[in-house]
Backbone:
């Protein structure tokens, strides 16, 4: 399925109220370097501004997140040069 | 597996629980693993990812693993992301099981619906709608 994407270098700033504001800001500021280092396709685990590592699959990063922070939250993200735009459709409900 | 179309659309039962990785972590730690929760899902072809209601996520005790900027019809929103398992129970055929699934929290509650079944899962199934009979089927 083809989804619209945006460049990882054009990600919007995080919502300051988000639990993951630090993680998103860290991700946004570092993703260009990681892509240049060949980390595209890997999964990064972040907590606050700390980069805890990269894994080749989602489950690996998730397992390490659960191990370190059993009650969460922690931030796992797929490092991609083109970030998929996620849409939610149900909000188009009409009101009468 | 076959279901009746309802006034809401393609609605069917699902089971939502900890993802496989979390279950392993709980097993290793010797902590109890809660049973999956039953909910009602609605097919939403306009959603890229499957969404789960905040109340169900809270019941499960799921861990937040990311947030994502999301385009909704009412504009851009930040949505929390979780990892869960999802199953479609069936008496007719083997259960459809996704052991580790990335889901979004529903931005607004939908009456009587716990899960919006998005294109991420729909693309794993063959779906047939029989409008005149008021039925739909999933094959996998």
Residues:
């Amino acid at each position: 399925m083809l989804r619209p994407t945006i460049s990882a270098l054009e990600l919007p700033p995080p919502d300051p109220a988000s639990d993951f504001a630090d993680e998103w800001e860290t991700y946004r500021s570092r993703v260009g370097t990681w892509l240049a280092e060949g980390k595209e396709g890997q999964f990064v685990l972040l907590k606050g501004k700390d980069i805890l590592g990269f894994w080749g699959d989602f489950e690996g990063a998730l397992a390490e997140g659960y191990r370190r922070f059993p009650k969460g939250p922690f931030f796992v993200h797929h490092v991609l040069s083109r970030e998929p735009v996620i849409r939610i459709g149900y909000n188009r409900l009409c009101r009468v | 597996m076959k279901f009746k179309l309802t006034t809401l659309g393609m609605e069917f039962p699902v089971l939502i629980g900890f993802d496989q990785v979390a279950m392993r972590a709980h097993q290793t730690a010797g902590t109890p693993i809660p049973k999956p929760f039953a909910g009602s899902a609605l097919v939403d072809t306009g959603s890229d990812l499957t969404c789960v209601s905040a109340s169900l996520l809270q019941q499960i005790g799921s861990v937040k693993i990311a947030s994502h900027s999301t385009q909704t019809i009412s504009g851009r929103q930040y949505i929390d992301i979780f990892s869960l398992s999802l199953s479609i129970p069936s008496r007719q055929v083997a259960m459809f099981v996704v052991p580790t699934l990335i889901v979004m929290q529903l931005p607004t509650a939908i009456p009587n619906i716990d899960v919006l079944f998005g294109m991420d899962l729909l693309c794993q199934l063959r779906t047939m709608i029989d409008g005149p009979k008021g039925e739909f089927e999933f094959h996998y």
Chain A has a mean pLDDT of 89. The helical segments of chain A are 21-36, 58-68. Residues 18-86 of chain A form one domain. The longest strand of chain A covers residues 50-55.
